[in-house]
Amino acid sequence: MKCLCQNRAECNLTDGSCKCTSGYTGKICNETCPFGRWGQNCSRYCSCRNGTACNAFNGTCICTAGWTGIRCDVPCSKGSHGENCGKRCDCMNGSHCDHITGACNCEDGYIGERCEEICPDGTWGKNCSANCTCQNGAKCLHSTGYCDCFSGWKGHHCEIPCDNGTYGYFCSKKCDCKNNATCDKAEGCVCRIGYTGPSCNDTCPKETWGLKCTNLCSCENDAECSPFNGSCTCSAGWKSDRCHIPCEPGFYGKYCVGKCDCQNDASCEPKDGICNCTEGYFGKTYVIFQNPEDLSWYSFSLR
């Protein structure tokens, strides 16, 4: 009788029956062990998990894509996927990929094949499926839906204006406004004309005036500029709206109301009325001054 055993099976010389080697079965040992079995006469069961087949000869698990470990019960580590976990994930913004297919599973607030896009305005959450409920121009955080209020507003949806006397981000600051300034719920103290500073307790810096001190003074010759209307208060010896014109001959002092009393062609200082004597003359100098309140005149000696 001819022996028909295959795959190195041992043939019984008496009856021609076959004794299969590990991993084979069948009358003539021409079949490999069925799925889930291995070893001599396929008598042993595979211990592999997740639908993984085992080697019919030694029982070693042959992991399917996405799995690793002796029994293929461990998913690929974070950042890898596929057969033998040999492929790298390319997901963005902290998102993870499926350990089997490599498809990106986006974190809340992101969409796109690689999770590279932030949720469109007005949406948030997983797959950007939730609608924002923020009010008054507040920004909706794409990941949590949290409303980041504009200055001057508070509340879960930024629907509540700041209480009187408070202002700023989530109404966390208190107003301390001076000089009749008003408290704006967004910006704080809004100064009246001529004032500046966080509490509006300072007048405009020198040479500026008006609302928010944005106007430049036009005064000349050391004149004082009003921080409220920009008007010029001339120093002694000058006049006009810009204080750029000296006192007329014979007059001096503040507002040019002092009247000189110089003699013998002496000139009068427009600032203080002192007489500059011409050559050949000297002596005390008397000046006449007009009281601006009652327009009366009086005189006094300068030296």
Automatic annotation (TrEMBL):
Residues 1-30, 124-159 form the EGF-like domain. Disulfide bonds join C20-C29, C149-C158. It comes from the Eukaryota. Keywords: Disulfide bond, EGF-like domain, Repeat, Signal. InterPro entries: EGF, LE_dom, MEGF/SIB. This is Multiple epidermal growth factor-like domains protein 11. It comes from Araneus ventricosus. The gene is Megf11_0.
